[in-house]
Amino acid sequence: MKKQNQECCPKFDPKPWDEKTHKWKNKLFIMDTIPQLFHMPLPWMIGRMIHKQWKKAQDAGAAPDIKDFLWLAYDPSPWKSEHYIYVTKEVPNANNVRISGTFISKVFDGPFNKVPEWLKDMEKYLAKKKKKAKKYYFYFTTCPKCAKKYGHNYVVAFAQV
Questions:
Q1: Architecture of the domain made up of 22-160
Q2: 25 in helix, strand or coil?
Q3: Among 80, 103, 106, 111, which is most exposed with the fewest C-beta within 10 angstroms?
């Protein structure tokens, strides 16, 4: 992900993700979990986990083009988070997971502590479409260093409906 003298995250274009519907049938991800404290992941654990999983995907020839990179986070509890990285084929020695369903995405911009506010906005948006979320995933599109460089901290909320 990181090349010499470059940040690790490509510039994010919110247009393909904002207020869009996605239908996934067996979309393949590798999944890992990390502990967290009251829904706040420990930053060093995220970086370590992402780099480890991305390396597994690259070594297996399963890493998508960087423009197709997708990392989803889901919090089943205040103490644990699940992280899913999109891959193009199964990865040996990884927890390969397939996700199916209809998802509505909406893009937000701001610090991570705004997630509760974004969830309320997302619920209002879904209500206008006469939909209700079964589950939420978040795509944190850039690391803090790249968000500062680009001047945006875009986060995509995916509501499984």
A1: Alpha-Beta Barrel (3.20)
A2: strand
A3: 111
